[in-house]
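Record 1 of the preview.
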Amino acid sequence: MSGKTAIKHNMTLDERVTYLKEKAREARLHVLDMVYTAQSGHIGGSFSVAEIMAALYFDILRIDPKRPEWPERDRFILSKGHVCPILYACLGMRGYFPIETLKTLRQFGSILQGHPVIKTPGVDMSTGSLGMGFGIAAGMALNAKLLGARHTVYALLGDGECNEGMVWEVCQTAAKYKLNNLVAIVDRNGMQNDGFSDEIMPIDPLDKRFEAFNWRVITVDGHNLHEVIPAIEDARDCQDGPCCVLALTTKGKGVSFMENTQHWHGKAPTKDQYEQAIEELSRS
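->
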């Protein structure tokens, strides 16, 4: 489907949700396989954003896998770049590269490295250092606004990433220039590399913080596609300035022993854990 989504425009919200639930489940299975094969990678945060990524890549983003550099495409910046396995899964599933390429995660010479790089088809910017991707997204949105371009720029952040001062500098800038073509999505799974985010550096009330910088905020259950889809669309259509979708999620969502567990921030499963996770995801 040229320059559009994988969803048919006449589908009801319930039909879209059913379709995207399956895509999220499929993406989690790919992530699990990739990280297990590489014995390296960030699985917990990839799982927490599976529904969000499915909604973006199979429904909302205006993209064309046959033309990765299509000038009119929407831009997506994975500011929390360490969860690139879920991005790669979606790109592979959409046809940006052969699906078999997913097996090469983190291998020498692979286009799928441990953080996104622009040599990967469908990746709009290399990211990794937390906060920087959000700044790049704001720059892209400002550039588009100055040029009169009509595409939207989406940035996905982690809640631990919101400890970075750069995030709030970006919020000031986006509000000043009324970047209504910029959508921030925060994966509020409550955890980061070293433990629970609120124990390391409390950030609540996160919604009020964004609002204090003159952003509109929409809070949703990040695993409920009936909430996620309308929220992102509403944020995209906001006319007054930048909008943030605050998605409340569970780290490791979908696999019982991974959920809300700090050890699965960047850990690869053993063979037994891999098989149990496959079983749980296959019947979810």
